[in-house]
Design goal:
Chains A, B: InterPro entries: HTH_LacI (IPR000843), Lambda_DNA-bd_dom_sf (IPR010982), Peripla_BP/Lac1_sug-bd_dom (IPR001761), Peripla_BP_I (IPR028082). 2 copies of one chain form a homodimer. By secondary structure, chain A is an alpha/beta fold. In chain A, 42% of the residues lie in helices and 13% in strands. Chains A and B meet through α4, α5, β2, α6 and α10 of A and α4, α5, β2, α6 and α10 of B. Chain A binds a DNA duplex (30 and 30 nucleotides) through α2 and α4.
DNA sequence: CCTAACTCTGAAATCGATTTCAGAAATCGA
DNA sequence: TCGATTTCTGAAATCGATTTCAGAGTTAGG
């Protein structure tokens, strides 16, 4: 007689209430229930309330699959980051998610481990899922990835960089310019013997590559081009920062300033410097990039570049929300970075000093 | 007259290739194409290859909405973490995502900012999305949240804790036992004047609360119960670790061991200790919890408890995949933590030393 | 009081893939 | 060679919500 199983064997206990159930209870058609939910203003208030009551009574929620199928919109956005282990990305993703959530979107997350092939696969999976928008990191993507995006016709934005090729809009900072400024600052302090530690091992890490280029350019412009051995490549671990510094100082013991493309590397370098008995900044100035929470708490506090990760995340969310809605969107957004001068950097020891306007500290 | 806009204003350019298109090209029925994709083994190899070729030619991908509608499975899992800013959660989420991805699942991510109301809202949104499984953090959840889960009939698992109430399975470590062991270790070293710094400000942070209880229990058992002023409550920031230590030492200048419920707090405490001119571990032993990457790189390296975050993430993924498939699943999984003794902890200065078997270091 | 102009609601088609059911083709044994 | 299995494929129903189209009901104007 009654069709409801007394107790479902294992799976869903209730067969899930559907729009038709609500319609029957409320003595209206499914169409009306749908209207109540989607266009409340075109339903007679009295009727609307009655239907609403039954919706609540039955705790009805519409099936998003059916909804998506009919409407063609999933109300879903995907993001692919290299890794979540880096606070800078975690922060951006968190901001992204928060903003999307406010607008009724949900965020799919995936990570590529700095591997372009994996990025492509994850993107494929996301597109199959019917996402309405996609957030990427950086400008270096395979061409097949770009064509996949284009073919799918999904709005996309790439983050943490100021511009990306292939007509993809970007939101982020000008990485090269940031390290260029940082390098110029160190030059002004009077440094002449530089070293760079860059996590450019991963092919897709164009942020660090741009940062390295910023360093190189500034130094070339100053007539102090970096020799290959003055640049140590690393991945993004703290331990690599340590070994990189060791190697750098082995090759160039007289280095007075080390510029790292990441705070993690810089913190590793500082740890190693301490272990080697080198005073920072008296003997060696060290700078980082990202301004992670720890940077300010180091001893000495780390000079670095602050990246507005949360703002990038929010901006990416806003961009996609607008793009999906068909609203006009900016081509690209360049956000300001901020050089944070702390005490891990100082003029070099008064030795040979071609400083233009460096003030000596411990004269 | 004609309803189709000549050129889509902005959105999808191609009408998206559907299964029927593939079927027509390949001269088979949609059913066969579907079978090729879902049960390749029941289709004649020759035919299967032919269909496959056309699938690739047309770059066909099935519409997940339609798929989900028909099958009732979204192949989607949701996770709600307090925050991604903590490496320990980011690591777990990353492992979770990787494992899910291997099995064709996609991960929805949301964060609660340690707010139970927000957690509930995010869960609601995820459930409306039709997720097949949900991952939570910790055991403290509102009862309405639990009933929502139950009513939705969605498999759930909670993480980073050894057990949770309300019949919810858990995968994680025994937090209380871990700090109890840590405290006992410090007792064995000969410490008698303890302090604790715990991030128990957020009501929902039962991990840190359990850790604090572990400390308290061990000390009570040793006849050295912690006074209220020997416990400083904090949130999860590094800066709070600093101020907490300062406050602790203001109230109890003779403290010789400080146990923190988080590495972040411990690192903050170490920074402050250094600033105050206190030698670690000679004057003050400090311990943390989580074993973040930085812990090992500190000076001195931090004694802490290693939490298998990646394993937790993977385990949660496996649990849900099985639960969704209807396979038998374990009730709960308790993973081993690992006490990592590094040099931030040592016997107290030879002062008054009731050590049972502490070896003196600098005799 | 009757028709015109609206407003509101319901029936039914639709989105795209999956799967049951049954029939066609192929394989096998006699 | 013929019928009995077995294997494989296709037609059609189905998942649940949305939305068009048209008709029912209501109000207003003449």
């Amino acid at each position: 007689m009654d069709k409801k199983p007394v107790i479902a064997p294992k799976g869903r206990q209730q067969p899930r209430v559907k729009i038709e159930d609500v319609a029957r209870k409320a003595n209206v058609s499914p169409a009306t229930v749908s209207r109540v939910l989607n266009h409340p203003d075109i339903v007679r208030p009295e009727l609307r309330d009655r239907v609403m009551r039954h919706i609540n009574d039955l705790a009805y929620t519409r099936d998003s699959a059916a909804r998506a199928l009919k409407s063609g919109r999933m109300r879903t956005v995907g993001v692919i980051v290299p890794t979540l282990a880096l606070g800078i990305f975690a922060e951006g993703v968190e901001a992204l998610q928060n903003r999307l959530s406010e607008s009724g979107y949900t965020l799919f997350i995936a990570n590529s481990q700095y591997d372009q092939r994996r990025e492509f696969q994850e993107l494929q999976s996301l597109i199959e899922r019917g996402i309405d928008g996609i957030v990427l990191v950086g400008a270096s993507h395979g061409r097949e990835l770009r064509s996949l995006i284009e073919q799918a016709g999904v709005p996309v934005i790439t983050t943490y960089v100021a511009k990306a090729g292939g007509g993809i809009p970007a939101i982020g900072i000008d990485n090269e310019s940031a390290t260029r400024e940082m390098t110029e600052y160190l030059l002004r302090l009077g440094h002449v013997r530089f070293g760079a530690i860059a996590n450019v091992v991963a092919a897709s890490n164009d942020r660090s590559r741009a940062r390295l280029e910023g360093i190189q350019r500034a130094l070339s412009d100053a007539g102090l081009p970096l020799k290959p051995t003055q640049t140590v490549k690393a991945d993004y671990s703290l331990a690599q920062g340590r070994s990189a510094l060791r190697q750098l100082l082995t090759d160039h013991p007289d280095t007075t300033a080390v510029i790292c493309t990441t705070d993690t590397l810089a913190i590793g370098a500082m740890a190693e410097a301490r272990k080697m008995g080198l005073a920072v900044p008296a003997t060696l100035s060290i700078t980082g990039f990202d301004d992670v929470e720890l940077a300010a708490q180091m001893d000495p506090p780390l000079t670095t570049v602050s990246v507005p990760a949360a703002e990038i995340g929010r901006g990416a969310a806003d961009y996609l929300i607008n793009a999906i809605a068909g609203s006009p969107v900016p081509r690209s957004v360049v956000l300001p970075y901020r050089l944070v001068m702390r005490s891990s950097s100082a003029p070099p020891r008064p030795n040979f000093r071609p400083a233009r306007r460096g003030r000596s500290r411990d004269h």
